[in-house]
Automatic annotation (TrEMBL):
The chain crosses the membrane at residues 25-42, 54-77, 89-113. PANTHER family: MAL-LIKE PROTEIN-RELATED, MARVEL-CONTAINING POTENTIAL LIPID RAFT-ASSOCIATED PROTEIN. GO terms for biological process: myelination. GO terms for molecular function: structural constituent of myelin sheath. The keyword Membrane applies. InterPro entries: MAL, Marvel, MARVEL-CKLF_proteins. It is found in: Membrane. It is a multi-pass membrane protein. It comes from the Eukaryota. Its main location: membrane. This is Mal, T cell differentiation protein b. PROSITE patterns: MARVEL (PS51225).
Amino acid sequence: MAATTAQAMGSLPSGLGICTTAPDIFYLPELVFGGLVWILVASTRVDPPMPLGWVMFVSVFCFVMTFLWMIIFAAGGHKNSSGWAAADYAYHGLAAFFYLSAGVVLAYITFLAKPLSTKKNYQIDIAAVVRTECTHLLICIHHTENLHYST
């Protein structure tokens, strides 16, 4: 088991390598799409606002955590101790679950709010739903690609 962990740690990229190797190449698109979800959800007014609080929490939390995670990997902080591959796998699993739940909530609220929304707000809400699902897909791909690091 220790040899497997050591092998996995040796294969985790750092520095600019995270921008050129799979699955870490997905950090930047995750940040872009996650930021777009955050901006699009914040730019509309939908009643009831409570479910959108969950969507905002997910988008802000995952944006900040993905940014911090990318900085840690770029700086090589993951080379100091073992368990980073498993932690990366666990984080992306949690983020995928969060974005799936946020996408479902946002789609449902958008569906309910259609009769009350202006055309512009409805289009922004649809764009937010699409970006949420794109972010979910990117995180799922990143999570799936992490399997060979964490085993």
